[in-house]
Automatic annotation (TrEMBL):
Residues 15-116 form the DUF3817 domain. The chain crosses the membrane at residues 20-40, 65-85, 92-111. It is a multi-pass membrane protein. The keyword Disulfide bond does not apply. Keywords: Cell membrane, Membrane, Transmembrane, Transmembrane helix. The keyword Glycoprotein does not apply. NCBIfam families: integ_memb_HG. Its main location: membrane. It is found in: Cell membrane. This is Integral membrane protein.
């Protein structure tokens, strides 16, 4: 694929990655808050850390929903990050760190900025190259 079609393909791949990076990051922050709340609740109860309600004390059902949604989002995040790597051939070490960033609170936001900063010039170069040929 060359020219404007390849540029549009890269734009779409970058957009998918960015959406998943933000969604995964938000749910990882919620999961972290859930676990911290379980720790504080443990001080007031005789239950073990993970037996406490956590976020379910505030939003019923969220104690089960947040970890499950984060798990599925992270799985899709990994697939989308690998897809973007295959299209752009970003450095493999950086891509591995980008994938791992979905497991560390706040790091998916940092990784999203790193990836966007490297892929947008690629998109611009591909689009300019296609415009010169046309």
């Amino acid at each position: 694929m060359a020219g404007p079609n390849r540029g549009q393909s890269l734009k779409n791949a970058l957009l998918r990655y960015r959406v998943l990076a933000y969604a995964t990051g938000v749910f990882l922050l919620l999961l972290t808050l859930h676990i911290v709340m379980q720790g504080f609740q443990m001080r007031d109860t005789d239950l073990s850390w993970f037996s406490n309600e956590g976020m379910s004390a505030v939003v019923p059902g969220s104690g089960h929903l947040i970890p499950m949604v984060h798990g599925w989002l992270y799985l899709i995040y990994v697939i989308v990050a690998v897809d973007l790597w295959m299209r752009t051939r970003l450095p493999l070490g950086g891509t591995i760190l980008v994938v791992l960033a979905g497991t560390i609170p706040v790091m998916s936001f940092v990784a999203e900025r790193w990836v966007t900063g490297r892929v947008q010039p690629m998109i611009g170069a591909v689009v300019d190259k296609g415009a010169v040929k046309a």
